[in-house]
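Milestone 3.1: sequence recovery, worked example.
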C-alpha cells in the first residue's frame, strides 16, 4: 500500500453512526461501507435502522442495525457494549442523530414570543444532548485506545441567523462550541491520536424539507429563492455530497485536523448576497 493509500485508508475501521435510519447518516454509512469499513447504525426507529443496515451488508461484512435512544444513558451503555462485543473496538463515531421540530420553529404569522419552551427544550435536547451523551459513552472507548475520530453534525443555522428555526439554530451553535471544547480536552488529556470535528451541511434538498423549499411543480418557494440567491453554486446540495468530507475526517489524511467545523454549503456561509 502506497503512502497516499495508507493516509486515505478506511478499510477495516469500525464506525458507529447515530441517527442511522436517517438520510444523512444513511448516505455516510454507504460511503464508509463502500470504502471497506464495518458500520453500526443506531436509531430510535428500529425497523428503519434494521432495513438500512440490511441494505448495506455485503458478503463477509455484515453491518449492525440497532435500536437506540441517544438521550437514554443506560440504553447507550448497553448498545455500546453490544458493539464492542461484535466489533472489538470503535474507530469512528458520527453523531448524526438530530433534526428540527415544527414546534420549535416560529410560524409564518408568529413572533419569537409565541415560542413554547417545551418545544424549544425538545429540539435542543435532541440535537445537543443527543450528541454529548454518545460522545461521552462511545468517546471514552476511543480515548482509552488513544486513537480515533469523532464527527459531529453542525449546520448553516450555526453560521447565520436563519429566520424561524430558533431551537435548531441554538442547538447547532452549541454543537460548534462543544466540538471545539472537546478537541482541546481530548488532545490535552488523551494525546494527539484522538480528533473531534464537525460537518456543517448547507441546504440539502431532501423529502423532509422539499415542500419548504420547492412548490409542487418543482419551482422554488420564496424561501428557496432566497437560499439559492445566497448560494454561489446556485443550487441545493445532495446528501451524498457529505460523504467525501466524512471519509476524510475519519482517516489519517486529516490526522492534524481537530476542532474544525467544515462547511459543505456551495459557498452559502461566505456569501454576502451582494
Amino acid at each position: 500500500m502506497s503512502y497516499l493509500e495508507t493516509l486515505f485508508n478506511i478499510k477495516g475501521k469500525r464506525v458507529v453512526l447515530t441517527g442511522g435510519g436517517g438520510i444523512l447518516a444513511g448516505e455516510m454509512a454507504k460511503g464508509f461501507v463502500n470504502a471497506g469499513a464495518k458500520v453500526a447504525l443506531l436509531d430510535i426507529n428500529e425497523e428503519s435502522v434494521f432495513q438500512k443496515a440490511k441494505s448495506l451488508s455485503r458478503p463477509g461484512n455484515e453491518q449492525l442495525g440497532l435500536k437506540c435512544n441517544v438521550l437514554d444513558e443506560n440504553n447507550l451503555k448497553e448498545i455500546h457494549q453490544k458493539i464492542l462485543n461484535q466489533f472489538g473496538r470503535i474507530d469512528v463515531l458520527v453523531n448524526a442523530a438530530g433534526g428540527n421540530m415544527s414546534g420549535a420553529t416560529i410560524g409564518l404569522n408568529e413572533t419569537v414570543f409565541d415560542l413554547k419552551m417545551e418545544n424549544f427544550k425538545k429540539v435542543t435536547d435532541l440535537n445537543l444532548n443527543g450528541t454529548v451523551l454518545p460522545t461521552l459513552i462511545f468517546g471514552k472507548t476511543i480515548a482509552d485506545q488513544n486513537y480515533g475520530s469523532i464527527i459531529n453534525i453542525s449546520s448553516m443555522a450555526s453560521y447565520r441567523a436563519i429566520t424561524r428555526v430558533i431551537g435548531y439554530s441554538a442547538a447547532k451553535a452549541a454543537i460548534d462550541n462543544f466540538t471545539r471544547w472537546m478537541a482541546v480536552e481530548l488532545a490535552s488529556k488523551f494525546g494527539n491520536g484522538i480528533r473531534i470535528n464537525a460537518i456543517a451541511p448547507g441546504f440539502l434538498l431532501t423529502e423532509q424539507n422539499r415542500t419548504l423549499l420547492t412548490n409542487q411543480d418543482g419551482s422554488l418557494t420564496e424561501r428557496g429563492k432566497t437560499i439559492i440567491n445566497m448560494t454561489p453554486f446556485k443550487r441545493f446540495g445532495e446528501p451524498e455530497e457529505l460523504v467525501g468530507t466524512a471519509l476524510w475526517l475519519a482517516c489519517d489524511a486529516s490526522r492534524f485536523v481537530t476542532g474544525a467545523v467544515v462547511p459543505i454549503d456551495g459557498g452559502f456561509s461566505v456569501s454576502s448576497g451582494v
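Residues 117-145 form the longest helix (29 residues). The longest strand covers residues 194-201.
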